[in-house]
Amino acid sequence: MDRYDAIVIGGGLVGSAIGYGLVRARLRVALLDEGDVAFRASRGNFGLVWVQSKGDGAPHYQHWTRRSADEWPALAVELEAKTGIAIGHQRPGGVHLCLGEAELAARHATMERMRAQSGNLGFDYRMLDRRELTDMLPGLGPAVSGASWTPYDGHANPLGLLHALHKGFADNGGCFLPNSSVTEAVASPGDFRIQLAGGEIGASKVVLAAGLGNADLAPHFGLSAPVKPLKGQILVTERAQQVLPMPITTIRQTVEGSIMLGDSQEDAGFDTSQRPAVMQTIARRAVLSFPWLRDLQIIRAWAALRVMPPDALPIYDHSERFPGAFTANCHSGVSLAGAHANLLAPMVAAGMLDPELELFSAKRFDVPSAA
Amino acid sequence: MVPPGASAAAAVLAAGFDSIRKTPVDGSERGPYCMMGVCFDCLAEIDGVPNRQSCMIEVRPGMRIRRQMQARTIDPKPE
Predict the structure, then answer these.
(1) Which of these, A32, A162, A286, B57, could form a disulfide with A261 (CB 3.0-4.6 Å)?
(2) Three-state SS sequence of chain A
(3) Mutation site for A-interface testing, chosen from B51, B69, B74, B79 by largest number of A Cβ within 10 Å
(4) Average pLDDT of every residue of chain A
């Protein structure tokens, strides 16, 4: 039986970011990737490193996301230098466009509430009226009434990130095991045996980062990960010269010039099919924001499943029953990559989560039921 | 010359060109490759429309095929 210091179950963005952080901390790590039968949220990402809409009513989530966005520039530079893979990270700030006065008023109320909740951390946002916005973004449609802006937001190439994390992991001595479905898991404190088709591997630590697969895996380790799929669809235009100087919640231009349109949310179970009605809604809203998008051809489109906890906040836990078993679940594998590689992985390496992560425990869902 | 029904990309290859565009990613030359609408390496400006997949368009007499030498432009006029 091959033994490691840690086994990370899940080779998507969450698992590879943690795995990369662990090998950088000189642990011997196996990273298990299920294969193309998996739902692979990390292959369908939009690519925002997005802060401004995270954590209304949950300032710890705003704080954690902000810390991740703060780690991002250094992580991107380090990965690009080590692997030579372009990640295309930029942090020019970002805007959330509002179509109509009602949306603008609601957005303003949300942003002000988040400022009130932010305490000493602060929440540096501005509401932009149409006139200010016209100086920042080209060719706004008449339906755009304004926007919220924060300096914290950015974007990156999610496939570049995943590729670089995998290469960085392997280059640091990590053992990537493809086509490795977990067929059985035996847990005892500090000693975990994982059965794969090719044999058994063992480690004193295990990290569950299997996305939607965590829901079934977690109970084997005394953990709970009640995540469900939430479908998102994305449209991509042909490449064009740079026109968008910053990312917008639902529209961003990549370094190569493609413009991505997205942000649909559908509760459709494990169905990854594309639906014309939703694609139309995405396109229509994009054209209301920027009428010139009408002239661009859509050359690709896809649907993918977000990994969604019941309250949309990440779940991080360390098993009380089987110390050494950790779980990480979120729908923001790109935004939180900085935190996962640079903050969470060192905690796992040290064998305990920092107290600031207690609020992210799945215990928050254990509401005692009335007798 | 190419037979009737051939694609614009085939006509470009038959005319002896081995490059039809420069990729906006790094400026290197690219030519028609998959000839079946998948690889997007045959992009050209055809009859004034940029970024057309020339392998998917039937060539016609008088068609104007220009090399796609950079990312297409956008004219974001305010409305």
Answers:
(1) A286
(2) CEEEEEEEECCCHHHHHHHHHHHHCCCCEEEECCCCCCCCHHHCCCCEECCCCCCCCCHHHHHHHHHHHHHHHHHHHHHHHHHCCCCCCECCCEEEEEECHHHHHHHHHHHHHHHHHCHHHCCCCEEEEHHHHHHHCCCCCCCEEEEEEECCCEECCHHHHHHHHHHHHHHCCCEEECCCCCCEEEEECCEEEEEECCEEEEEEEEEECCHHHHHHHHHHHCCCCCCEEEEEEEEEECCECCCCCCCECCEEECCCCCEEECCCCECCCCCCCCCHHHHHHHHHHHHHHCHHHHHCCEEEEEEEEEEECCCCCCEEEECCCCCCEEEEECCCCCCCHHHHHHHHHHHHHHCCCCHHHHHHCHHHHCCCCCC
(3) B74
(4) 96
